[in-house]
Model the fold of this input.
Amino acid sequence: MALDATIVFTDLHGSTAVFEKLGNARATEAVTQLTAWIVRVSEQHGGLLIKTLGDGVMLMFRQRQAALTAVVDLQRQHVKTITQQPSANHLPIRIGIASGSVEIVDSDCFGDAVNVASRLCDLAGPNQIWASASVVAGLKELPGVSFRMLGPISIRGRVEPCAVHQIEWRDEESTDFVTMQASLPVDSQMGHIDVLGCELQLACGEDKRVFRAFDLPAHIGRIKTMDFVVSDPRVSRTHARLEWRNGSVVFIDASSYGSWVRFTSASGPDILLRRNECVLHGKGEICLGASFSDADAPRLVFEVRMPQWR
Done:
């Protein structure tokens, strides 16, 4: 039976480490309880359990808005819960969501939306929701929720890249989960060790710089007071800034002539930003003040390295 649906995959990030710390019996109980809770909350929003996958869950929704409401509710409730638990027990949820035509066979679900949602779940970071453009198209953003463009991302087994958005679900003031109360260790070469684990490597010709999450925001521009200086007349005095927001590095264009972003892993069109922004992930290039068709345009090469907690 074929129908239009929205597919949601969830995964418990860091479960391997939890099994190592707690032992098989306690960790299995924690994982089982959490996956059962994910199913209950999703069903309250109209979701249908398709199957469980160890520490993961696959669900189907007939309505995109219901699916969006469900995944935001899951993340908000779960983060409030784990802030009250010892760090050794933390199992952040990562979520992938995609919409499209699916085929139901013997209570299982098949189709492009299934493959895309599964892959986006794999790519998302802890506490993140990655959604295909087909999910967010035409939907109104919920209170405290925004859709942030990640750009085209190649999906394994799929010829065309998938346009992807990150669903930002945190209120700006709700940052308890990433707040550290203890003192931070010191690294002799890099200063404080970044407890968030994020590292952005940025290069333009011979100029190179590494930014940690606690270094952001950082400004890019032509004048010497910028955190990263690009001396080219096509670059605005204050061309762009980098922010650490909700677990991601965000590039925000503030220039007169725009910025173009190209991701190494994507074969789709370059992203043009004019007083707009996108989340940086993986590896790629940013062209400042002119498109990539201009061979002499100033280019930034970037790589975002996120924490590997699994």
In short: Residues 24-44 form the longest helix (21 residues). The chain has two domains: 2-172, 186-305.
